[in-house]
Hints:
Order of helices and strands: HEEHEEHHHEHEEH
Strand content: 15-25%
Radius of gyration: 18 Å
Structural class: alpha/beta
Strand order of the largest sheet: 1-7-6-5
Number of domains: 1
CATH superfamily: CBS-domain
Largest sheet: 4 strands, mixed
CATH class: Alpha Beta
Number of helices: 7
Number of strands: 7
CATH architecture: Roll
Helix content: 25-40%
CATH topology: CBS-domain
Amino acid sequence: MRTTREEKTLAEITVEDLMIPAEKVAHVQTNNPLEHALLVLTGSGYFAVPVLDNENKLAGSISKTVILDQILGIEGYEIEKLSHLQVADVMEQDIDQIEKDKLFIDGLKALIDTPFICVTEGDGKFVGILTRRAILKAVQREYYQHNFGS
Length: 150
């Protein structure tokens, strides 16, 4: 039986095999001020990050665009709004997610139109993200193994 990710075929690989674990993923909490969320987004270099509740369950996502839309006033940006609004007030709640035990093909389908998808366990607990990059690297590895193989 194959045990490492490199030894598995694409049909055997699960989302969990390819995901970036939660402890390595930039995220914010629902009760964080928008100011903190913008700092996390800017510091990480990401366009969007997951939002977790106080039980580490996935609550949604927050992006730079959503934050900037909230502070845009008639005559410019109203920066003071950043400390008065919380992430929960403006986050996107209806986001796609995938469970960690799903197969590679499910992850591939989920990532066609987005750069990453949040990975959860059955109870909704956030366990990481699956990136389009990870999917493409797995396809590349399979291609080279099949065509130039071992």
